[in-house]
Histidinol-phosphate aminotransferase
Amino acid sequence: MADRPTPKAWIDAIHPYVPGKAKSADGRELVKLSANENPLGCSPTVIDALAAAHSPALYPDPDAKELRAAIGALHGIDPARIVCGTGSGELLHGAVQAFAGTGDEVAFSRYSFSLYPLLAHKVGAEPVLAEAREYGADVDALLAAVTERTRVVLLDNPNNPVGSWLDAGEVARLHAGLSPDILLVVDQAYAEYLAPDLDDGGLALAAAHNNVLVTRTFSKAYGIAGERVGWATGAPALVDMLNRLRGAFNVTSGGQRAALAALEDQAFVRRSRQANSAVRARFADRIAMLGNHGLSIVPSEANFLLVLFEGALTAEAAMGALAEAGYAVRHLPGQDLPHALRITIGTEAQMDEVAAVLRREAEAAG
């Protein structure tokens, strides 16, 4: 008899999710370019909504009815086909939990959101990494990775940490290659940063098929990461499963008010998208100028760039120099990217300084 409760073997093997750092090794506060937060903050309407009087003693609306109606109105979705969660993470976990378990497989591209392997491990399933093409998701590789044990395929689009994006034709081809009993989850956490003419067709697929779920979050372009609000849409049976698995009263009253206010200010979302696009392009140009020192970037449609260090300057050394200059960025050795840093797009002044530090260090390293 054991002398203490024994966890399931697959739970004991899980490494906790590691968030982006905000402090240096010596405890200094750093400009946080490690968590893909919106440098513009959030809409003033959100601040006003959070400041409005309310009673914290009362439970929130357990079904987030008003928020689901607002999301549905914006995207042309029946609110009955929408479920809200504490960020999209709760809903991604529910999707995997509902359909995968011991002996099953959950497939995704090699360089995908670091939460995905944890989602599989939490339910005793095996994560299967499909090989990438130029760091981005490859539909043919994903389909080749599918076996009779595959229950869920996860696609972050745009991808995190790479920033790559598959168009509607490729996403449709991926879906068409899956059997109807495999769930395709299209994680659109960064969708609001896409140019208006870019659409991966995920919402249309979720509206038309029984095995497609789309997840989104208010943590990125809407700028309310601290309130932990996300949503998902799919066939009624999929939404029903998520409603069974999500926490009761999962989205707080403040979170619901903040998300409603954020939805009302689409002008703020447009400003965030436009600023991100302009500053991202400016920063990418500066990194391209360091190509002779072994630095390059992977083209991104999100609010970050993956910078590759394939010369004398290593990613680890660059991260240390940036920390000395007051900036936190994300080093990714745990995702098979020891030679890369994921750098959130901050303000123009911040990114100019980051580029200047990298130029100085690259030139010094030779």
User: Anything to note?
Assistant: The chain has two domains: 21-41+268-365, 44-264. The radius of gyration is 21 Å.
